Predict the structure.
Amino acid sequence: MKFVRRLRRSGSPSRLPPSLIIDSGVGRFSVSISVRRQFSVFFSDNSIFINRFPLKEESDSTGMQIIPVLDLKGGLVVRGVAGKRALYKPVESELCSSAEPAEVAVSLRSELGLGRMYLADLDAITGGEADLETCASLEELGFELMIDAGIRSIAGARQLTRRLDGEVIAALETLPGPRLLSELVGELGAQRVIFSLDLAAGKPLSGGGDWPATVDEIASAAVSAGIERMILLDLAAVGIGGGPAHLDRCLAWKDRFEGLELVTGGGVRDLDDLLSLRAAGVDGVLIASALHDGRIGPGELGRLAVD
């Protein structure tokens, strides 16, 4: 095999460029070179694409983690808009020309240095089968996943964790109540279970069960159940570019719940929004549209790291 051309600009001469094409007739595969250097390799149009995986410290130097969202529906990455899932369509992105999950994820990593993904399996969340194959293939490519596959029971969580290494999202939308949440924490450990407090225009998006009535009461019940990591996500804000919806609440919860790791998302537009979220003490931000539209790119992420 020989190198044909570089797809993207390389870094220093001593380092492999982020992406190369190699002449070959070999089929799709992946390979790990070493603990410090890993590469994803896949076949397309009689060529092999090799993507260097960024080191973790390269992709998380801001004090607040940027976590791309992969909403999966029918095996493709779709673009979320205001939680109206019936209207979601395959993503169109400035980063890549495909809605295939592996290609979208690889482009986010190679272009932006982001290797931890929030994956929402919309088919599973709405009662269908979980797409464990796609999740497993992304893990094989070296991605760290936070997986929302519509967990409704201990059995469902076990099915997920038998196959996958990712963090399990237990979401208000599908979980019956805080008792099951406590059982999940007991079974999997507080570091592997993330509670997603789902909202729709500020109101709890609960599938029923015995959850408390208010948003703050639900958060308190989750912490009492042993939760140390929480997502606050307002689906009505997703994909519409209206700005972060719950800055004051994030600030209050970081003060109220000592040691809570808090991630939020929905409506993030630009660098100013990221700076506001960081000032509120948020530990991570879920983003999709702003990354695919180019409103938040390498320049903005670089400025976030130094501001």
